[in-house]
Amino acid sequence: MKVLVIGSGGREHALVSRLSQSPDVDRVFCTPGNAGIAADASCIPADMAAPDELAALARTLEVDLTVVGPEAPLVAGIGDTFTAEGLAVLAPDSFAAQLEGSKIFSKQFMADCGIPTAGFAVIDSLEDLDAQLDRFTFPIAVKADGLAAGKGVVIAKTRDEAQDTGRKMLTGELVPGAGQRLILEEFLTGEELSFILLCDGQNHFAFPPTQDHKPAFDNDEGPNTGGMGAYCDTRILPDDLRDTILDKVVEPTLAGIRGLGHPFCGFLYCGLMITPDGPKVLEYNVRMGDPETQPLMHGVRGDLAGLLASAAHGRLDPSLVTWSDGPTACVVLASEGYPGSYPTGRAITGIPEAEGLGAKVFHAGTRLRGGCYATAGGRVLGVTAGGSTLAEALETSYKAVARIHFEGMRYRTDIGRKGLARYH
User: Fold this and answer.
1) Helix (H, G, I), strand (E, B), or coil: what is residue 411?
2) Would you list the DSSP string of 68-134?
3) What is the CA radius of gyration of the chain?
4) What is the pLDDT of residues 122-168, one digit of tens each?
5) Environment class of residue 295 by beta-carbon count within 10 Å: exposed (0-12), middle (13-18) or buried (19+)?
6) Residue 180: what pLDDT?
7) Do the beta carbons of residue 358 and residue 385 sit within 8 Å?
8) How far is 52 from 317, CA to CA, in rounded Å?
9) Are β-strands 65-68 and 89-90 bridged in parallel, bridged antiparallel, or unpaired?
């Protein structure tokens, strides 16, 4: 097999790294990739928002499977384009991709299908905003309708903050292009859970549960980011809760989108809040999460390429992979200022020493400068490790983190803390 991975972040590096280990994979390509991915795959420049260009690349490379990492190509219709041209791709069509591409579509879909979620209101204007705010108690979530690279959600603690945030979204000041419409959403309390599935249009297979850490700083403080770390541990999800999620969320979601004439093929990410009233959906993604993919890929064993190909061809075969017995964890190293503006071009040292401790360092925002790695993004590296226990996986990850340095480097020191508290 020859496989093409689309994307340029830590999620894509994790996918490339594991796909290259599949027994039948001869070569892995990535577009556009990054400096770390280039060590594991042939990186080729291309416009990720241009499905026709990506299809032409897949034909030129004669790949047997294309795996899409980020959301933008999916929402742009890469699934439709590749399918129409007879190219194997692991991707939903553009209609189903609205589950992530439009918060308004997804919330109305959940309401129509009876899927448990937070109460919400659709906002189209400043007048709507003023009128609907009185329906809610605070804090509330203010969510831009469109894609916002993980930065389109603000938890507003007061009415004034919600009004100001909503105004900035509607006018394009806060998330340009994503917030001409928005959602006001009831704030849910509980513990977050990432539940990711692989689907072939009819069947589905659930990956082990993971937990992301969105806020920028320790103790879940600061602005939301694309994710500052994650861990994977089967104990996150007791069997009875897993059954409830499958019955109340997964089955109605897949049946609902299939009933609209668009069977779902690809990765379906259900972002859940486990509330006192049971699991409720915070959001859908139509791709693997980042950084959840890093600990998931660190723990998978067997023929990942075969598994993904089986889903793309409508013959999902979960028996092709198994999972490590112990937990895995990823700590994201970010540039100062992230998720706001941040500097780039800062030299990175210590990656070989970190990997010498048993960790795997996935590159998210790096480039080569003078033969050495340098920062090129807000999230720079994902330091990932496994262990027989969650404590051991985290200890190895943080020991490896301590070997890495770049000016302004920052990271959360409490990744996995909720899991540790739960199990001890």
Assistant:
1) coil
2) E-SHHHHHTTHHHHHHHTT--EE---TTTTHHHH-HHHHHHHHHHHT--B--EEEE-SHHHHHHHHT
3) 20
4) 999 999 999 999 999 999 999 999 887 767 889 999 999 999 999 99
5) buried
6) 83
7) yes
8) 29
9) parallel
Distant-in-sequence, close-in-space partners of 309: CB < 8 Å, separation ≥ 6:
1, 64, 65, 88
Report residue 15 as tokens.
């996918």
Least confident of 15-29, 57-71, 177-191, 193-207: 177-191
Indicate the class that CATH gives domain 2-92: alpha beta
Check if CATH label 3.30.1490.20 holds for domain 123-180.
yes
What residue has token string 């979620």? 117
Those residues with Cβ within 8 angstroms of residue 167's Cβ, 6 or more apart along the chain or in another chain = 126, 129, 173
The pLDDT of residue 325 is 87
Give the H/E segment covering residue 251: helix 251-259
Coil, strand or helix at 293: helix
* 8 Å CB contact between 173 and 181: no
Best CA proximity match to 267, nearest among 91, 401, 420, 70? 91
> Which CATH code, of 1.20.272.10, 3.40.50.1820, 3.90.600.10, 3.40.50.720, is assigned to 328-423?
3.90.600.10
- Look-up: residue for tokens 């051991």? 392
- Write the CA distances from 399 to 217, 268, 355, 365, 384, integer angstroms: 19, 33, 10, 21, 11
Confidence of residue 179 (pLDDT cuts 50, 70, 90): low
Query: Are 106 and 185 a contacting pair, CB within 8 Å?
Result: no
> Distance from first CA to last CA of the chain, Å, rounded?
45
What the block records as the tokens of 91 is 């991707």
Q: Across the chain, which distance is largest between two alpha carbons, in Å?
A: 59
Which pTM value belongs to this model? Answer: 0.95
Q: Which residues contact 64 (CB under 8 A, 6 or more apart)?
A: 1, 2, 3, 88, 309
Distance CA(141)–CA(217), nearest Å, equals: 19
Residue that is written with structure tokens 């097999």 in the block: 1
